Amino acid sequence: MTRAKLYRLAALLAAFGAATAVAVSASSAAAPAGKAAVAKADAGITIAFNMPCSTCASRFEEQDKPDFIKSVHKLNAKIKVIATNAQGSDATQIAQIQDALANGAKVIVISPLDESTGKAVVLKAAKYHVPVIAYDGLLTGAKIAFYVSFDNLKVGALQGQYLVSHLANGSTVAMINGDQTSTPGVQFKQGALAALQPAFNSSQLTLGYSVDTPLWNPATATTEMQQALTKLNNNVQGVLAPNDGIAGGVIAALKSQKLDGKVMITGQDATTAGLQSILLGTQAMTVFKPITLEAAIAAKVAVGLATGNSKIVAKVAKTKVNNNAGNVPTLLLKPMVVTKDNVSVVVKNGGGKWKDICAGLPSNICPSK
Question: Does residue 202 form part of some domain?
Fold first, then answer.
């Protein structure tokens, strides 16, 4: 970790500690005693579910949040879920988790905005003896209870291999990568390069431009793609976009040059907007990750831990992943490629509805329902 990151983490921990000291003292002084109090506490179990942003991936509010809450209540209708979104601010994410802990959260399920914030959250949650589940991205440098995600390296590899397999020899590729302060962003890029680099080395493809997108912001991606087009004199045949939000930003830049539909673009999350772009022919593919399954797994482990089922993690985990603080029990789910030919897979697996996907689209390009 760089000195700057260490200073940043120290500042986050100091702010967190000052604001939570009173809550710790109050909760200790008011600790319930006796069987009646314990029974009452069990009836009021709280789980915190915290996502990093809305602009970085619309799925967090549109899919993950409602799917997680629904899954928790299916398992135990009495459990309260505090569902919050940091909206791109590490200070907000710290404050939201702090509030959840002060309000008695028994488990934290989090997709951190960046690595430093995630580590700060885990270290402070440990002082409350509250387990943390890493959701959709591995938290590094601190002990966590469980990690559930899709195989992020595989996601990137699917995107990179799609370009390798479908672009003509000699094509130029621009890589508009995700935020490299987040573990998923790093892994998506690594996976993509694992597939693309051999093609670059052999001159089958040319890497014309590469940039990382802070906070996964689609508007920033538009500017980045405009800069790529300027540098390359519009000579771009493929764009590695790590998710549908960034793909949308890329498409906006291409549209301004009347190149939309003429450049092969990847994506991820199978969002409604992404699927519409695929049907319109302005995006080539997306990587579909059945979020209902990911949310259900997180809910199952969270409810188990919150209700004292210490065996739930071992029961659900299929492997272990090292996060530089130990080997974390993990379940990595399998992503899949979706193109115009198999959009129906998303609908069949609960990832979208035809009425939403087809809204505003010409009837002749929307598949029969």
Answer: yes
